Amino acid sequence: MRRGTLGRDPAMILGIGTDLCNIDRIAAVLDRHGDRFRNRVFTETELARAARRPHEAATLAKRWAAKEACSKALGTGLSMGIAWRDMAVTNLRSGQPVMTLTGWAAQRLVAMTPPGHRAHVHVTLTDDDPWAQAFVVIEAVPESAPLPPALPTLLAERVQSGRAGA
Length: 166
Known about the structure:
Blueprint: E1 12-22, H1 23-41, H2 44-52, H3 56-73, E2 87-91, E3 97-101, H4 103-112, E4 117-128, E5 131-142, H5 150-161
């Protein structure tokens, strides 16, 4: 493998996904299906955050877009066994969004990560009524590379709250 310009092994992009979601569409689904929709798609943490926000539908629309974008970055879309709740968006204290994968989504991430590397899922969210948008980039970083600055903070927050894993 060719080394990067700073003498480090280069990282590589494993997947990129994006999605654009209409906030009004999510609001209509919430009105029509309520908790059935909420509990099928979103984790308790995502729902708690949305409940604290003045615009629940916008908050959930961004997370819907992130899940769609993540499934595309995984190279599967919402097929091959990935469930909505296998992908979850949480936030660091700074507000930075973090995508956490469980279940089949986590298994797919492991399968697509080359030996000697660890995967890092980057996510960014935005909204401008009536649209919510998300981008997800999955990067393979050599195991010898230092952890990204946000990851130690995230791990520390999860240890303090009793949630393990990255």
